[in-house]
Design goal:
The protein is of the alpha+beta class and 59 residues long. The chain has one domain. It is built from 1 helix and 4 strands. Strands 1-2-3-4 form a 4-stranded antiparallel β-sheet. The longest helix has 25 residues. The structure holds zinc ion. Zinc ion binds next to loops.
Length: 59
């Protein structure tokens, strides 16, 4: 199954049987639970970036 790599943002592969996410591009290999945690952290970072962009526009 396809997944998004949390490291390089390219296509990673989610192995459902092993519950592991691997990325051929950068060599990332994470357990699914860890992958989800990384995804959450990334989402928070992106929200922060969005907020600061928003603030600069003065709205
Ligand atoms: Zn990667």
């Amino acid at each position: 199954m396809d997944a998004r790599c949390v490291n390089c943002n390219r296509k990673a592969d989610f192995d459902i049987d092993k519950s592991k996410v691997t990325c051929k591009e950068c060599g990332l290999e994470l357990d699914y639970e860890e992958y989800i945690e990384r995804m959450k952290e990334k989402a928070v970072t992106m929200a922060d970036d969005f907020q600061s962009t928003w603030d600069k526009r003065g709205f």
